[in-house]
Amino acid sequence: MPNRILPEKTVERLSEYRRTLLKLLDEGKNHIYSHELANLHNITAVQVRRDIMFIAFTSPHRKGYNIKELIKVIGKIIDPKDPYNVAVVGWGNLGKAVTAYFAGKRPQLNLVAAFDIDPKKIGSEISGIQCYHMDRLREIVIAKNISIAILTVPPGVAGDTAKMLVSAGIKGILNFTSVTLNLPPGIHHEYYDMITSMEKVAYYVKKQKG
């Protein structure tokens, strides 16, 4: 079991592998070869084997990797030892959609609260997740032991909101806005820019068409 920090792309692929493996397990499949997993993710079998070597997993079976065992090892590597509590910050259409999708998806990542400044949204719930006013951010973060925030606020307030999150004790931010955040060391953040992702898709479509 590796103690070193894995490359970001490896962590991403391990998460993707696990989702695929869980689906295959539900379908009754118990073993899988590296080339089968590679084909499902449009990568090479060499890359799959390299990623699995990173987590020191081996399978003695000629039938390929034991799916149930591989799922367990991936979980030990990428999941926190104790569950982390998560909040959605910004409860517009995107924030509500993220809440409805994410709630209950991962037992080690518990979505426990949402925040907004719109009085009409305060106190409302989706999938059992209640929306609180931003004025109560620090109070709720402490009370519910929230470590991670999903940021879905308008771009114009993203920077100031991120500062409030850090001040309240948040340790990690998944940023759904188009704004680059200036965060202090020790705060891990990931960006998901839908426009950039779509432009990337369009670029490769253009190249395929010649």
List the helices and strands and how they pair.
Blueprint: H1 8-26, E1 31-32, H2 34-41, H3 45-54, E2 65-66, H4 67-78, E3 84-89, H5 93-102, E4 109-116, E5 125-126, E6 129-133, H6 137-143, E7 146-151, H7 155-168, E8 172-175, E9 188-191, H8 194-209
Helix pairs in contact: 1-4, 2-3, 6-7
Explain what you see.
It contains 8 helices and 9 strands. The protein has helices at 8-26, 34-41, 45-54, 67-78, 93-102, 137-143, 155-168, 194-209, and strands at residues 31-32, 65-66, 84-89, 109-116, 125-126, 129-133, 146-151, 172-175, 188-191. The chain is α/β, with parallel strands linked by helices and 210 residues long. The protein is 46% helix and 19% strand. The protein folds into 2 domains: 8-77, Winged helix-like DNA-binding domain superfamily/Winged helix DNA-binding domain (Arc Repressor Mutant, subunit A), CATH 1.10.10; 84-196, Rossmann fold, CATH 3.40.50.720. The protein has a 7-stranded mixed sheet with strand order 5-6-4-3-7-8-9, sandwiched between helices. Strands 1-2 form a two-stranded antiparallel ribbon.
